[in-house]
Amino acid sequence: MTTHQEGSSSPRPKATRQRAAIAQALATAPGFRSAQELHDELRAADHKVGLTTVYRTLQALSESGAVDAMRREDGETIYRRCDTQIHHHHLVCRSCGYTVEIENEAVERWTQRTAEKHGFEDVTHDIQVFGLCDACSPE
Amino acid sequence: MTTHQEGSSSPRPKATRQRAAIAQALATAPGFRSAQELHDELRAADHKVGLTTVYRTLQALSESGAVDAMRREDGETIYRRCDTQIHHHHLVCRSCGYTVEIENEAVERWTQRTAEKHGFEDVTHDIQVFGLCDACSPE
DNA sequence: GTTAGTGCAAATGATTTGCAAACAG
DNA sequence: CTGTTTGCAAATCATTTGCACTAAC
After folding, report:
1. Average pLDDT score over residue span A69-74
2. Helices and strands (H, E) in chain A, number of each type
């Protein structure tokens, strides 16, 4: 029987030109972007990568925890390189997309405790704060 | 010029059979459901309502604050009648969909203050806690 | 009667999938 | 070589929109 060391960990991806380009793009620019936006970025930088590949790669990176994924209010999924392994949430400008990472121990604990109080297990949560950053505010 | 009284308030909807059916369905069953699910419910109850109308009505109700809308993890938007006018969030069972309303003043204030501290205005937020309710927990 | 509301079918837009060709190990 | 990865095109899926039609007021 083929019992090598195969846990629930990923089967290691191959090193391809496009994967490198995607990783680099994510490492270079800081903000969140959708798969399509990242794809445009790459094409603009003369990296020929298929949109499909961008989707597949981002999904894989997201699952492995290498990138943060969140859903924008319009429903598009956006990604960004995860700087910290620490759990955090985002404050996002509704207009320009400027993003700030926010976190608060107390809030984390509250969600956890509240869920447990109601008999829930294996709890995860998602907090998103939207607003207009001062650059985008009317005056 | 046609300058009647037109504020930012809604132009009052007309009372139609389908709107009534939708409102009733929302009032009767308690949980969250997607537009498509609600549509099925209605057809099952012999109410002939077009899917388009369900979408349009739910959207209107959501904007007027009569129903709560939230996005499921899979991206579908789900709605439910808003019992309280008080701002609250949801604790949702990942497996069976059982939902509990949760709220916490302190958390509300934290999101507000944090956003303002970063120069954001017109702040809204969205908190969702997912987990397995005890009925769905492994043991 | 007018206008808002309805519903079908077609359009949209993000994401996924089938499948053959290209490539890493 | 041999299994992955890629990428195009076509398929999905939720939601929206065009437009002719019907019902409210």
Report:
1. 83
2. 4, 6
Say if residue A83's pLDDT is above 70: no
pTM of the predicted model as reported, rounded to 2 decimal places: 0.70
Q: How many A-B residue pairs are in contact by the CB < 8 A criterion?
A: 106
Give the closest residue to B95 by CA, choosing from B69, B128, B129, B131: B131
* One-letter identity of residue B17: R
Cα dist from A33 to A42, A80, B13, B67, whole Å: 12, 7, 38, 30
* Strand C nucleotides where any atom sits below 7 Å of a protein CB: 4-9, 14-18, 23-25
Q: Which chain A residues are Cβ-neighbours of B132 within 8 angstroms?
A: 120-122
Which domains does chain B show, CATH number per domain? 17-131 (1.10.10.10)
How large is the average pLDDT for residues B20-46? 89
Cα–Cα distance for residue pair B121/B20, rounded to 1 Å: 37
CA at B47, C1' at C7: how many angstroms apart?
14
Structure tokens at B96: 């069976």
Higher pLDDT, B83 or A135: A135
